[in-house]
Design a protein that fits this description.
By secondary structure, the protein is α+β, with helices and mostly antiparallel strands. The chain has one domain: Hotdog Thioesterase (Thiol Ester Dehydrase, Chain A). It contains two helices and six strands; from the N terminus they run αββαββββ.
Length: about 130
Amino acid sequence: MKHPFAELIGLKIVLEDDNTSFCSLDVSDKLLNPHNVLHGGVIYSLADTGMGGALYPTLENGELCATVEINICYFSAVRNGTIDCMTNLSHRAKTWAYLESEITNNAKIVAKATGTYSIFRPKANSNV
């Protein structure tokens, strides 16, 4: 699936399978904040994309999903290397799902995130 934002920041979706996804991103200077560490929004985007990647294969034909909320805890600053995100679908109901992501940098956990997603069918005249 085409993902323009992921392409913009260099995010690679390595695995999308029922209940699991794995994403990766090489840290570059253009993704750093003024303190020369990876911007937290990049880590958030990795978790959000990973959660969608784990949920999408479980959707039925015609269903879509959307982020309702994500809670993220940052443990350590990232300055270089690659960041990886492993996501697992923890619970899937008819209209919502709960997912968990672990973000690592050089095999060290730098953040964890949990998220709730809405599962829905767009209305006939919807732009979604």
